[in-house]
Amino acid sequence: MEPTARLAAFAVDTPAEAIPEAVLHAAKRTLINVLAVALSASTDPSVDALLASEGDPPGDEASIIGRGRGQLGQAALVNGYLAHLQDYDDTHFPTILHPSAPTWPSTLAAAESRGASGADLLAAFAIGAEVACRVALSVHPWHYDAGWHITGTVGGFGAAAAAARLLGLTAEQTANALGVAGTQAAGVREAFGTNAKALHAGHAAASGLRAARLAAAGFTGPTTILEGRRGFWAIFSPAGHDRAPIDALARPEASWELLNNGLKPYANGVVSHPLQDAVIELRNRHAIDPDAVVAIEARVHPLVLELMNREPATGLEAKFSHQHCAATALVDGAGHEAQFSDARVRDPLITTLRARVHATPDGSLREEEVHVTLRLAGGTTHSTHVSHATGSPANPMSDGQLARKFATLAGERLGDHQAASLLDAAWSLDKAKTIEPLAALFRGAASAV
Amino acid sequence: MEPTARLAAFAVDTPAEAIPEAVLHAAKRTLINVLAVALSASTDPSVDALLASEGDPPGDEASIIGRGRGQLGQAALVNGYLAHLQDYDDTHFPTILHPSAPTWPSTLAAAESRGASGADLLAAFAIGAEVACRVALSVHPWHYDAGWHITGTVGGFGAAAAAARLLGLTAEQTANALGVAGTQAAGVREAFGTNAKALHAGHAAASGLRAARLAAAGFTGPTTILEGRRGFWAIFSPAGHDRAPIDALARPEASWELLNNGLKPYANGVVSHPLQDAVIELRNRHAIDPDAVVAIEARVHPLVLELMNREPATGLEAKFSHQHCAATALVDGAGHEAQFSDARVRDPLITTLRARVHATPDGSLREEEVHVTLRLAGGTTHSTHVSHATGSPANPMSDGQLARKFATLAGERLGDHQAASLLDAAWSLDKAKTIEPLAALFRGAASAV
After folding, report:
1. Does the residue A414 lie in any domain?
2. Which of B44, B48, B51, B53 to mutate against chain A (most A CBs within 10 Å)?
């Protein structure tokens, strides 16, 4: 079976019972995380612009996280944007794909449109995320190295697959949907540090949902989108690709990539997380006075300098500055949205400390690894080695850590009581007859902000 | 000035009076052509699917050609799809870009949302098309050769520039809009022969319009989208690019690319048009009996075999079969939508004749050139040489030919009377205070179909 057909068959033919309990639990965790970060992002002024950009009337078919209701496509677009805006969503470590930001919004909107059960929703997400991760594995690292934002480009495959399953498409219709979504893949890394980066995830979500809805109505797309001569592999990854991760879906014992997916403790690019872990560990262990630090020296994975090396002018840019991440970790001991405000970027102490961060690339390190030394005035040094950053597969956030992250971020928007109800609804989603009780809570309509 | 900034400044700072009369006339001709082909396409069943794909309610802010009204974004999406569905829209010969299908829908929707005059509409389209053509020139031929559908990828720049001008954006906002649109560029050639090809134009139109609306509200995108390290040139055209066509905009005597843009006499891929011209010329001159033709031999530009070499199974595929185009030209003397029905593809005589078409590539020919010999049973041969196909820059369709094409295609949908009124409204658009009288006619709401 050719790879595109294989993905389509996997999407619609995999029985829900074949999805391991651990995978469904991981799916719930990603939903809880997405709801938390999207609720936190939902008050950003850019969201008003995005909601208005499609024109009026807004519609009321589907739920928008923290923002009421909208049309189906609009809900997918805005929810994808919200889920990725703070760079605080989950990460598939083998590929740096963010599978949830494109896949969850499409899954949620499709489920709402069909009145699907919580169990069907979770299964569809697990399938969609698997499809996205497998496509990502098939083009990594060549695709990302070429300059593509893999969440924008590959995300649409996951969004289409999840929606195709919920909408009851045949395998052939699903192959068409994957073709329509795949030829709409978009997003380049030049957009990092701008609002357009999060829009990539929104486009992938809306495009995947639209592809499934179109294919259900007989619309055709290239059913050889991956392997075709002018298809995704040839054009988006000319330096190389590997069909093995997709062929592997034929084996019933294939692993599930959601188990290689991590949640973030910091609201910035993931490659800097080991550095922040290390700085916070030293700060807390030695009660460091930030003013006394003359140098923060780090040996880092080369991607840190490739992706996150800049003197930021705005909070959004600071999320891609390892210097800012290290400086705020030292001063605040945290990396939430508050550490990435424009005002925090201009803070004199933070500005001084950014200039004292000296990172050197070390190709022998894993991405979740770092060596850090703090040099203090007077000559004292403190060093540490982080081998697995918090949130990486070998050191995942616990359900309790996730619940605390959720309470902080969702509580700001919904109030503590409604946030707690929403968390309960998410944990018990597999027993819900429809997702409306969950959606009613995350829409924020009844909020007491 | 860097290229992205140059395009932005050109888009918003060029005075309308600087646009030559011939360019504005060419702009009118592309609009008349787009309205004709979109009206003809508007009854295709796939349009129902597309209209429904964004969800309800449809909205009524902007006009959809032949289909009433919709939301702004939806109108841009559907009009772009309609304009390109029959592959019967205009072509920028130097790059094979179809500038109108992405640019006109965004221009029309933006004009409606602002109550713009006909003159402002025409100027904005001329500017947007120029931006799209200049970006296309900067990446041609490397970009298309890499497998991209240049109308999908480059079209968004034109759509964004035209909308930015009508919405009154500053040059800086326009650079952001170009960045947002550019990082949403999409469309691979694997989609040729499927509904997804026309969706590329719809996406470019909607994405460009959205980018301008977002940038007007302060949304940021990469303002170095063309020249940036991870920008459009680096990623979408790694084999080469040329900034000269964009730098040339700094010179007030720069030529206008709409003057290198042609309208199509046949509803299929443009590279096969010389072949159809030649076959029709021989058919008419020698009163050929198709059953007597044992071979149609052609020396063609290599792109004919690269892009349009297939035994089609459907009408849509037949638009990319030079064999089908030649066979129907011989039998019917035409290449309208009627020649590309599924039934026509299965016709026994056409099927037989397709197998009798023998094309050989000749790299010394220009794209608008062909040598054709018809071999008849009994040994008679008839040959001809077309040096400039109808619709190419050196042999453009006349205004009268365009009016006949319009009357045929628009008349089918609107009836002859309303079609004639619409044509009058288009020719006198430069004097219209708003575009509502034109839109009221092309919406088709008052149609007597």
Report:
1. no
2. B53
